[in-house]
Amino acid sequence: MQPLTVVIPIYNEEACLDGLLTEVCQVVGCDPAQVEILVIDDGSSDRTPDMLQAWRKKCPALRVLTFAANAGQSAAMAAGFRSASFDHVVAMDGDGQSDPADIPALASRLDTFGVVCGYRATRRDTLSKRWGSRLANATRRAVTGDEIIDIGCSLKGFHRGPLQHIPYFEGAHRFLPVLLAMQGCSIAQVPVHHRPRSAGVSKYSNWGRLRRTWKDLLGVRWLQSRALNYRVSHDSLLDAALPDSEAAPQREVSAAD
Predict the structure, then answer these.
(1) CA 205 from chain center: how many Å?
(2) Residue 206 in this model has a pLDDT that exceeds 60
(3) R_g (Cα) of the chain, nearest Å
């Protein structure tokens, strides 16, 4: 496995944190030369900050970004992606419902694909959440034309480079594969495990997501409709760098590059 950054946004998850980090370390190890476990503390007001400081003494691969105040999941993920040390990045939630054992399967597909999306083959949530997710996925696919099965699944793999060139906004974390596809990234989808929340409290509801997401969806569709589309067929700077007899063959460059 290539060196890997695991990005985990956290907000008031004292009940889940020890179990989560124990599992992540068991799966990816604690060698800072091979893995970075990057936890973004989104302004937690419980014992989460103290617990993270204790974990830093136990796991040399653990790095913590601490927000001065709660800024939301999109801000936490953007900060993690921009600060990642390695090219291969896997993101997951901090509530314990994602299974860290799925990380290697996603990371290995990054050798071939630009984005790897997990989808919850058997979802362990309430009926209302499952139906709300199905409706949201169907509506998004109809508007944006993407084919992502389960965009709400937090387990996703990325390359660090393209993550630096997408627009971030409140709610952007829900549309990352769509935004990256606009950059020319290829996408794979793999089934992942999903577990019921064993502790702590969910920060989301169907109504809360709906109020935020419909405007974001229209905004993403607007971005798609206004995306730049061009190809550079020749760059004279390449000619100037070499004698005429050794001129390098030209490579077409697209806006996605």
Answers:
(1) 21
(2) no
(3) 20
Report which residue type is found at 85: S
The dihedral of CA 21, 25, 30, 34: what is its sign? Answer: negative
Supply 80's token pair.
């993690």
CA distance 69 to 63: 18
pLDDT band at 101 (very low <50, low <70, confident <90, very high): very high
Which residues, 6+ apart, have CB-to-CB distance to 109 below 8 Å?
A: 116, 157, 188, 190
The pair phi, psi for residue 250, each rounded to 5°, is: -80, 145
29: left (phi over 0), alpha (psi -120 to 50) or beta: left
Alpha-helix runs per DSSP H in the chain: 14-28, 48-58, 73-83, 103-109, 127-144, 160-163, 176-181, 206-225, 236-241
Q: What one-letter code names the amino acid at 199? A: A
Structural element, H or E, at residue 119: strand 115-120
- Residue 99 pLDDT class (50, 70, 90 cuts): very high
What's residue 103's pLDDT? 98
- Distance between CA atoms of residues 141 and 53, nearest Å: 41
What average pLDDT does the structure give for the chain?
86
Structural domains of the chain in order of their starting residue, each with its CATH number: 4-226 (3.90.550.10), 230-257 (no CATH)
Q: If you search the block for the tokens 């990005």, which residue do you land on?
A: 7
What's the predicted TM-score (pTM) here? 0.81
